[in-house]
Prior knowledge:
The chain is mainly alpha-helical and 243 residues long.
Amino acid sequence: MLTAVGTTGTLTEAIAGQLIQHIMNGDYNPGERLPSEFELASRFKAGRGAIREALKALSTVGLVRVMRGKGTFVSARESFLIHPLSMGVKAGTELHRLVEARKLIEVELAGLAAERASRDQIQSMETCLIRMNKSTGPTQTEQYLEADMGFHFSIAAAADNFILSQFITLTRNLMHQWISESLSLPRVAQEALKQHRRIFTAIQSHNRPMARKAMERHLTTMGDRFMLAEKSKIDRALTEERG
Length: 243
């Protein structure tokens, strides 16, 4: 049953999170039409704008498809995440959608990992942290990047949910771009390392709420850094073109 959302996080994220849970639990089957924006707004006790943004976020990760004039339908399981994310980031206006997509999926993965991670899986995460810590120098970006991505892959494996973990595999190239460009900014590597340690501590302690919160803070902060790096790159390109 859909319920009214609270004030934790943004309203859009809370609505999208509930919808994801219902879809993944099979409450809505592939091909089934979701309730209308009006109905969802009534059930969540939210404005239609927030509902529309939540549905756009789910569409970005391929969980639903929006058919103009017909409604919003649950995608087939085998098509989750594949089509929109395989297209990559094509324009700056799409960057905030990528940030939303990572937050929606990876926050849940972190929570599941906190519940399900085995000793070996926790050890794998710790190994990635050690490699990150040894690779914070300006000439070690590639080593840091691979360890960073390995950390997120380890969390996905520990979450033990094949469908959700496919998000990490399918967005590998986008993650590489995200992390690489973020690391071009001063002290981002050190900042990200601290955030990864908080995520690790929460998962190691099997504290689901703390793990979700730590991952959300990390992706929000790094998402801001990523978009700043992208903007700087575009500004430089425009300056060079004019010059």
